[in-house]
Amino acid sequence: MATTPLPNARTEPDGSAVIRVLSYNIRSMRDDTAALARVISACEPDLVLVQEAPRFFRWRKKLARLAAASGQVILSGGATASGPALLCSLRATIERTEDVLLPLTPGLHRRGFATAVVRFGGARVGVLSCHLSLQKDERYEQGGMLLDRLAALDVPYAIAGGDLNERPNGRTFRRLAASLQDCWVAAPWGAEYTSTPTDPHQRIDAIFATKGIEVLGCGVPRAVPGVTEADLRAATDHLPVLAALRIPVA
């Protein structure tokens, strides 16, 4: 895996954009929120794909506090998407957002997608945060819904990421990777495994990109300046995934 620094975010002379995208399961901010904010801030993301955002009492206030502490603003999601959320830097120009609730299977947790279309310079990109089911058949159906939802954004380029609750050899993970670029496979960087922070042994969190997006690097940001092992362990029960992507002009 590459250990050189990821490219910094920038807008190219032709209007294309290099952006940093972070996907992170934050466990409803039940752990060390100061450590969580430090990790997010140190990664300098343009987009943060959150899973397990606060969903209950004063959830908007809690998510807004995290966004402010990490240099972000709320883009969409939270309780209205049953957990997934999107944060973004002020560099993003927001075109539209939509929170999507998925069909409820009796006895299982309600799932949803947080989605948006944003611009960075001349680059226009759709984005989706997800947290797929623990139940394998429901998870597989949700994988198909994810692909359909990306197509419904009606943009030439899109990014999806989140907690898949499945390893790369699982059929839902393979379904997504057959249609989208698995950013870790395209340009491995940093560390691979996302679960658990104290014993990393499996990759169940991922960032995907549609064809045409150039993946410059993707992985767990263990070597990013300002990201410490202590903070990664204290922040939540997952490790984050950070990707640098070049989005063409659209």
Automatic annotation (TrEMBL):
UniProt GO MF annotations: endonuclease activity; hydrolase activity; metal ion binding
Q: Which UniProt keywords apply?
A: DNA damage, DNA repair, Endonuclease, Hydrolase, Magnesium, Metal-binding, Nuclease
Q: List each copy of the Endonuclease/exonuclease/phosphatase domain by range.
A: 22-238
Which cofactor does this sequence's record say it needs?
Mg(2+); Mn(2+)
GO BP field: DNA repair
Among InterPro entries, the record links this protein to: Endo/exonu/phosph_ase_sf (IPR036691), Endo/exonuclease/phosphatase (IPR005135), TDP2-like (IPR051547)
Q: Does the keyword Cytoplasm apply?
A: no
Q: Does the record carry Transit peptide as a key word?
A: no
Q: Under which name does UniProt file this protein?
A: Endonuclease
Q: In which organism is this protein found?
A: Streptomyces montanus
